[in-house]
Specification:
The chain is mainly alpha-helical and 651 residues long. The chain has 21 helices and seven strands. The chain has a three-stranded antiparallel beta sheet with strand order 4-3-5. It has a two-stranded antiparallel sheet with strand order 1-2. Strands 6-7 form a two-stranded antiparallel ribbon. A hairpin with a 2-residue loop joins β6 and β7. The chain is elongated and about 110 Å long. It starts with a helix and ends with a helix.
């Protein structure tokens, strides 16, 4: 009931049928955005079904169902299947119906134009009763295509935005359940790369995938029209378009592989930069700046080479979009002339229009979506690898303190045997005895006995080896050492963020810590926290109540600052000085804003033409830009002259 009320209260829920058909329910916001920058209060309220928490829960539920189904079928779970299932079936059916109507309207429009041109060219005199149905059909098909295209694109964009929000929320929620070693194992670089670049690949796939799924229907209808208009000889030109489609498929596969290689290099580069920032003191001390700079530059050059090669492949697909229709039309018309089939202007017009529809399908509706589909596949694989990551089972450490284990063999001791190391030829468990729990009070303490651990399972040398430590209640213990000696690793081991490979850890009491990863916010609203200021406790309780303390503190600080300003500004000269400083600060801020937004209108956000010119100049010199513009104009003029000459020959 609450969800239905939330939908009705939105402008879309209150809109009429005509407003929904023409998207006029968004006109007020668009009109306001043309006059001033839009703020959060001007935007529409989010429906319950589109909220991030709801979408994240839905994706998590579907992923668990996918894992259970895959386990029963003995197949590998797929993240994209769980993502598709969070989209309601009603929206999918509506989108499919609108897309079919768009295909029919787009492909039947040239056919109706062909009937119209044939009627006015073969009839001895014009008759409005004969031509009026064709004119109404052209108008109806054009309007239907426009309306269906707008609604199809709107629905697809809404779907992919929901998927992106759900994936980002799911990935972030998964990160909170992983320990530090699990994150280091699954992600060689930075997690932000997955959330930003890989999730963006889902947005880019939306509209192209919409055209790709129905491209076969478009091609079949266009080929039937060509057969009707120009017989089978007109279909010869489509062979060239199918060759273009095959090239697009191969190019898409290659582009996806290059994107995967570039993403791995980006992760590697971010990992190196992260290590440089973490150990900047050691880097400065030993003068390693130039070596690390050369290493990062080498990886960056290799990364740029992959990006450039991929850009060349993508640009070749777009180049075929502008040239393939002319080649296909030339082949078809040549075949018709050789076989002696008479051609008329309306036949040539319809033939070229149908070939243009096929060209649009094989280049932009097949080749480009295949490339984006390969990118999205790589992104989903990277995100699924993170989602499937399991934290190391730290509960075994607690069980080790409650069990006394006996092994057959003299050279093995219970404290030095790893559970994952029990294989054939190694010690065999013959008995175990559970120790009784004690009820006496034990003071807080931390005890480490010959602890060894690894940051990564791929490392041969342990990060910590045979470390023993005992810190009891009332002791002040400091951990010192050079950079890279293992101070953070020791603390992570005590916090159970770094699993223990051998040895025993006993922590009695509660431990407070501040994570060193600033972007990873791990506190929940129900977590118990203690906030200190100048050595005294300011707040102690649930994390959700800290916001109230902060707001009161900000108000008190603001009142205190006002009193201090009034106290220090008693003298008239001091007041004038304060006013001058305030005016100077305001002028400096306005000047800084003008420098940052000199090429952008601060009222409506429009970008000046100079920005586009600077963008072009950053890539090419002026002479080459002008030459390309002249060449483009010549090609377009030559094409128009060729079409006009062909039509005049068969008049």
């Amino acid at each position: 009931m609450a969800e239905e009320e939330a939908i009705v209260n939105t402008p879309k829920g209150k809109a009429s049928y005509f407003s929904l058909l023409t998207f006029s329910w968004m006109s007020d916001v668009l009109k306001l955005g043309s006059k001033q920058p839009l703020e959060e209060k001007h935007l529409f309220s989010i429906e319950t079904s589109n909220q991030a928490e709801r979408l994240t829960r839905d994706l998590e539920r579907e992923w668990l169902a996918e894992e259970r189904a895959s386990e029963q079928d003995r197949t590998k779970p797929r993240l994209w299947r769980a993502m598709v299932r969070i989209i309601p079936c009603r929206e999918l059916m509506t989108w499919a119906l609108l897309r079919i109507l768009y295909s029919l309207a787009s492909n039947f429009l040239p056919l109706i134009v062909w009937f119209f041109l044939r009627s006015i060219s073969t009839a001895s005199e014009l008759s409005y009763t004969t031509t009026l149905p064709f004119v109404l059909g052209i108008t109806l098909m054009t309007g239907l295509r426009t309306i269906c295209n707008g609604h199809v694109v709107f629905k697809v964009e809404m779907m992919v935005i929901r998927l992106k929000v759900a994936v980002i929320g799911f990935v972030y929620k998964k990160i909170l359940t992983l320990n530090r070693r699990a994150l280091e194992d699954v992600i060689p670089g930075n997690i932000i790369n997955i959330v930003s670049n890989d999730a963006e690949a889902i947005i880019q796939l939306g509209v192209p995938l919409n055209f790709f799924l129905f491209s076969a229907l478009d091609i079949i209808i266009s080929m039937a029209i060509i057969w009707k208009v120009a017989s089978w000889q007109g279909l010869i030109g489509t062979c060239f378009l199918f060759a273009v489609s095959a090239y697009g498929s191969i190019a898409a596969k290659k582009a996806g592989k290059l994107r995967r290689n570039a993403a791995e290099l980006i992760d590697q580069r971010l990992q190196i930069i992260k290590e440089i920032v973490s150990g900047i003191r050691a880097v400065k001390m030993y003068g390693w700046e130039w070596k690390f700079r050369d290493l990062v530059a080498k990886i960056r050059r290799k990364e740029i080479s992959f990006i450039r090669y991929r850009g060349f492949i993508v640009s070749s697909i777009y180049a075929l979009f502008f040239t393939s229709s002319a080649f296909a039309g030339f082949i078809s018309i040549t075949a018709l002339l050789i076989t002696g089939i008479p051609l008329r202007p309306f036949q040539v017009f319809t033939l070229l229009s149908a070939l243009s529809n096929i060209r649009l399908a094989v280049t932009l509706h097949i080749a480009q979506p295949l490339r984006l589909l390969a990118d999205a596949k790589t992104a989903c694989a990277r995100m699924q690898r993170l989602v499937e990551t399991k934290s190391s089972d730290l509960s075994q450490q607690e069980k080790q303190s409650l069990l006394k284990v006996y092994f057959r063999g003299r050279k093995y001791k219970s404290r030095s045997v790893r559970i994952e190391g029990v294989r054939s030829g190694e010690p065999v468990l013959i008995s175990a005895r559970k120790l009784e729990a004690t009820s006496q009070h034990i003071p807080p303490q931390i005890v480490l006995e010959r602890v060894s651990c690894f940051w990564s399972q791929r490392l041969e040398r342990p990060t910590l080896k045979n470390v023993s430590l005992m810190a009891t209640n009332g002791q002040l213990v400091g951990i010192t050492g050079p950079v890279g000696s293992g101070k953070t690793s020791l603390l992570m081991t005590i916090l159970e963020e770094l699993p223990v490979s051998s040895g025993q850890i006993s922590c009695i009491g509660k431990i407070a810590y501040v994570p060193q990863t600033p972007w990873l916010h791990v506190l929940k609203e129900t977590d118990y926290i203690i906030m200190l200021e100048n050595g005294s406790v300011v707040y102690e309780g649930a994390y959700s109540g800290m916001e109230i303390v902060r707001s009161k503190e900000n108000q008190s600080n603001g009142t205190k600052k006002d009193e201090e300003q009034q106290h220090y500004a008693k003298d008239e000269s001091e007041q004038e000085t304060a006013a001058a400083i305030k005016s100077f600060a305001a002028e400096e801020q306005n000047e800084r804003i003008d420098l940052e937004e000199e090429d952008e209108d601060r009222m409506v956000g429009t970008v000046k033409w100079g920005v586009y010119w600077k963008y072009l100049r950053a890539a090419l010199p002026v002479v080459l830009i002008v030459s390309l513009a002249v060449f483009f104009g010549m090609v377009q003029g030559k094409w128009m002259c060729t079409v006009r000459w062909v039509c005049s020959r068969f008049r």
